[in-house]
Amino acid sequence: MVHTRKVRTGHLAAVGLAALLVLSGCAESQRSQNDPNASGGAAKTGGTMTFATEGAPKLFDPFFATDGATFRTSQQIFEGLVEFKPGTAEAGPGLAEKWTSTPDGKQWTFTLRKGAKFHDGTEFDAEAACQNFNRWYNQKGAGQSTAVTGYWQDNFGGFSDGAKPSLYKSCAVKDPQTVVVELTSYTSKFPDILGLPSFAMQSPAAMKQHDADNVVKQGDSFVYPAYGQQHPSGTGPFKFSKYDKANGTVELVRNDDYWGPKTFLDKLILRAIPDETARKQALQSGDVQGYDLPSPADWEQLKKDGHKLLIRPAFNVMYIGIGQKSNEKLRDLRVRQAIAHAIDREGLVKQQYPEGAKVAENLYPDTIFGWTGDVRKYDYNPDKAKSLLAEAGASGLAVTIYWPTEVSRPYMPSPRDIFGFVRGNLEAVGLKLNVVSKPWNGGYLEDVDQAKADVFLLGWNGDYNTPDNFIGNFFADPDNRFATGSATWGNQLSAEVKAADAEPDTAKRKAMYEALNKKLKAEYLPAVPVAHSPPALVTSAKVSGLVPSPLTDERFNAVSLG
Amino acid sequence: MTARTDKIDELAQRAAESDAGVSLAAAAWRRLRRNPVFLVGAGIVVLFVVLAILSPLLAAHDPADPMLGDQVVRARNEIPPPQPGHPLGGDQVGRDLLSRLLVGAQQTLLVGVLATLIGLAGGLVLGTLAGALSGWVDTVVMRAVDVMLSIPGLLLAVSIGALFAQPNQYTVILAVAIVQIPVFARLLRGSMLAQRHSDHVLAARALGVRQRAIVFRHMLPNSLGPVIVQATLVLAIAIIEAAGLSFLGLGNPDDRLPEWGQMLGQAQNVIDSHPQLAFWPAGCIIVVALGFTLVGESLREALDPKSRR
Amino acid sequence: MLRYTVRRLLQLVFVVLALSLLLFAWLRSLPGGPVSALLGERITPESRARLTAELGLDQPIFVQYFKFLGRAASGDFGVSTGVQPGDSAAAIFVQRFPATLELSVLAIVIAIAVGIPLGYLAARRRGGLLDNLSVVGSLIGVAVPVFFLAFVLKQVFAVELGWFPTTGRQEGGLDATRVTGFFVLDGLITREFDAAWDAVKHLILPAIALSSIPFSVIVRITRASVLDVLDEDFVRTAESKGLTTQVITRRHVLRNSMLPVVTTIGLQTGALLAGAVLTEKVFAFPGIGQALAIGFERRDYPVLLLLILSAAGVFVLVNLAVDLSYAVIDPRIRTGSGGGR
Questions:
Q1: Cα C167 to Cα C172: distance, rounded to the nearest angstrom
Q2: How close does chain A come to C177, measured CA to CA in Å?
Q3: Greater confidence, B118 or A9?
Q4: Model confidence at C173: pLDDT above 70
């Protein structure tokens, strides 16, 4: 009996081995045999860097994306006509070397860079640039859904079918190196918006070959074509190599035909690790050489451990919104001012915000045009708050306050703790709080956007360097989350925001925005600005050349492993 | 339906076997008194319950008051260290950790007990219905119960937890409780079925005692043994599963009245820099869960006539 | 036997259908969902209304359900909105299932390899130090929250000591070839042994954490059933016949006590799925469990629906397999009367 069992075991092992051999016969290793010269001496060229991100990209065609993970990847592959200067939110030359506009700001002439080539080998020229503009403008069907082309619709409006007005009018090829773009009206945000990741230049040939515009609505979502999934083709310093979904890694390789300085890295691997603690530990153990968005609480430790902490300039705002819709008392300015006086913003920023965070006085940071320090300030003064409430007949007012769970935003690192602080402040001046907490994606945004909250915690991460990106987004439409349309001054505010954006004269525009910022604090006060908070990223000590960007638009082309 | 249900049925079977009533309970008690496992478990449980009840008196500070908030500096990852009046220091927002642990005992006990009671009540209704009425009621109820038993417990609890639009303390309790309903239902039904043909029920029926009286006076009381065993074990499971829910972000977001699982879930991001914030609640959970498990297991053994070896 | 199997499979279909209707209706009634997920922070009341209409989410719930069933029949369970936005839920399942299977298999192997010998030895030396230690140890194993154990293991063995990687399934830079989706197997059959070994290293810590509960249960069951068998008449007979302990062990005790152990192992395999949700989250291990955890956090309803359904399906199938093997091992159990007792 013992005998038979032994034989059987041996037999089994033999069968298993045979099966393995058979399998290995038809499954050859597909490894690329490269980097024998990885360590090339003094030059820091070579090597693979793995960078951990919060999420995996949705797709690789940035025009159809709104998510940070997609942009993080696409910004290494693609370039726009306009590019933000590294480390700033300031627009500078990209694939266009320079541009001029007519005095009315409606006609723009771009001079394009020579020698740029798409990854599929085709030339980047004026023809290609205009084909990109026309691709954006001519979206049809599912491509017109807000979920698919959100950035276009936010910034340029409608499409060629004319159902909604569009900022874009036409693009003309003047010569192979010159394009003329015509707009239907002036806006302060052009041409800065061309620096947005969504409006990067993509290879018309590759898009045609892989059916780039064939977005299909399927069930209750959208399915993207092969181009966006596997064949992105741009002019950038890195080329797309592969997306290993099972492992959550995107692999990019050096573009040896790049028009500018070539990358030091052979390969850049972006790996999705959703959990913040897990990202930190992956860096500590050397699994990755850097990661995005370390928790502010870990900054000190990471620095102490010898890692490089790169702090981005704060390009965001956290505010306490005060809705005008359901709670009549909140339409009384004195009540809103009482809330502003009740919050100990200094204390909150000191306790709960990272190093470098600032108390906010405007609804956008001071690096943006039109910011002014000369606004009405609300110091922390509970007694004043109480007397203002009493004056307005609102002592002990009941207020519905919303805060989000299951989320951490750069402007709001730990909503639970920030809310705990705010709650203490508000209760101290006698407000009766009806607290509602909901998951960020599971009802919070939905309720707040429908102005269900009297008071709520929210903020905004800037996309580009104009005031309109902040306050235009908040108030241009009076039907917004603050329900300013329900207030007597709501329509006036909207009109003022739009007028400032449409003013071509720089000096006048600046004066208009400054006036607007003053009124937002002194007369309207639909939100109490609380903080501008710098998010960070971190790399191991041997990584150099990564420049933190206020727009979270870091490029890895100058990065090397020392 | 499955081997898992078989296990429950086996436990139920014992109710019928242990028909002898008082004498057996007395014998069981005699054995328990000398069982060190039971004594340790019971000691933990009693201490925990006393602490939980007295915690409002024992806690020196308001668990919701960020009294040490001045010492919190997120930018440098500083939280209040242990200091006079605050032997364990403060938490991420400067609340007294010891007071939170003490009050946490009460909340944790509340979660455990409520979850168990709701599970038991639900199981009682379903199980009694099925066991007493049999026929198509039995079939329908038991099919539903089997469907629920076909999903792993924690997964079901987590799924239910995710189905509430606005999580709070009671959704956590409910999520944990619902998972236990089918277990209790199956247990009660099993032990009632086993008794249906036992001598004393047959005798009562022959004497013309009404069905309802038989169920409530005879069958139900005799099923209590295994139910108590199960309830003790469920208390431990409920506390651990509530912690799991918090860890996955499905716990109670309002942390003014702390619960250990919630404290542990919230400490997950600072576990390496401030391990005490995780280790204290984790230790408490482990000890208390162990206490209930020890009591449950030794009760099970004591009530099991087979284990008198 | 066949009829029994068929009936159980029909039951499975019924369970999954009932569960799908319940989950679908409930998930659709929740706030958030596809519209919020697709539009994010940029949402306006106007764009919300438009997209809701575009996606047909304003139709009656049963219309939506039947459309969903129709699509599901062709393998389309919707598109992920949070876990891997843009990927189909079915693709996420297919791609992540091998990861969880690898992890579960290793966990159960660890639990068995350590648990059975320990339980057996504990029973043979009843009342001894080893026995008491293993009993207490197995009770503690159940009392420690799995995610806490995972955290401690990761902190000690990965972060502090650096013996194992902290997260993931495999080093990104290895450029491993993918064939089956099972990374260890892939590494073996393509002879990229470094890739296989790397995948194994990534599995070890999460597998240990995941095995804590099945390990505890297996120790206790093995101990109990070995004690039961030791007590049986035939063992006493064998002892009185003067057979050596070794022979008794091999011929009688082990074989006869394995039945309940096999059952337990089967049950625990199903329950591993639940533990995987916690463990995979801690180790950022891209399996089904992590997808569920992220799905809960980001309210990714299509993925949650499919994964919960398939988890239930898998669990039922495992139970069926256990019951069938039970019947094969022990002919005394007649499957015909299985359901109704």
A1: 11
A2: 6
A3: B118
A4: no
Name the neighbours of A, counting chains with at least 3 Cβ pairs within 8 A: B, C
Cβ–Cβ gap A295/B269 under 8 Å: yes
Express each pLDDT in C68-87 by its tens digit: 888 888 888 888 877 887 78
CB-based contact B73 A351, cutoff 8 Å: yes
- The whole-number average pLDDT for the span B203-225 is 74
* pLDDT value at residue A6: 41
Instruction: Provide the token pair at C170.
Output: 């495999």
How close does chain C come to B24, measured CA to CA in Å?
22
| Residue of A299 and C266 predicted with greater confidence | A299
pTM for this prediction: 0.81
Chain B nearest CA to A337, separation (Å): 25
Closest CB to A351: pick one of B72, B166, B249. B72
Instruction: Look up residue B306 and give its amino acid.
Output: K
Chains that touch B (3 or more CB pairs under 8 A): A, C
Residue limits of CATH 3.10.105.10 in chain A: 316-532
Contacting subunits of C (3+ beta carbon pairs below 8 A)? A, B
Which architecture, in CATH terms, is A316-532? Roll (3.10)
Interface test with A, best of B67, B68, B73, B74 (most A CBs within 10 A): B74
Per the CB < 8 Å rule, is C273 touching B2?
A: no
Kindly list the structural domains of chain B, giving each domain's residue range(s) and its CATH number in brackets, ordered by start: 32-307 (1.10.3720.10)
Give the phi and the psi of residue A238 in degrees, each rounded to 5: -115, 150
Task: Kindly report the three-state secondary structure assignment for every residue of A84-121.
Answer: ECCCCCCEEECCEEEEEECCCCCEEEEEECCCCECCCC
Residue limits of CATH 3.40.190.10 in chain A: 13-36+43-291+536-561
Higher pLDDT among residues B307 and A322, named by residue: A322
Mean pLDDT of B107-111: 90
Are C154 and A281 spatial neighbours (Cβ–Cβ below 8 Å)? Answer: yes
Element (H, E) at B128: helix B97-133
Confidence of residue C229 (pLDDT cuts 50, 70, 90): confident
CB contact under 8 A, B77 and A439: no
| Separation between Cα atoms, residue C273 and residue C270, nearest integer Å | 6
Neighbours of A397 (CB within 10 A): 22
CB-based contact B69 A351, cutoff 8 Å: yes
Please return the burial class of A333, using the count of CB atoms within 10 Å of its CB with bins 0-12, 13-18 and 19+.
middle
CATH of domain A13-36+43-291+536-561: 3.40.190.10
Range A89-100 average pLDDT: 93
Q: What is the pLDDT of residue A116?
A: 94
Residue C295, chain A, CB below 8 Å: the answer is no
Q: Is the pLDDT of residue A278 over 60?
A: yes
Query: And the tokens for C182?
Result: 């099972």
Asked whether B144 and B178 are in contact (CB, 8 A), the reply is: no
Q: Is A366 helix (H, G, I), strand (E, B) or coil?
A: coil
Contact B244 C267 (CB under 8 A): no
Out of B155, B289, B309, closest to residue C274 by CB: B155
Phi, psi of A390 (to 5 degrees): -60, -45
Alpha-carbon gap, residue A159 to A139, rounded angstroms: 7
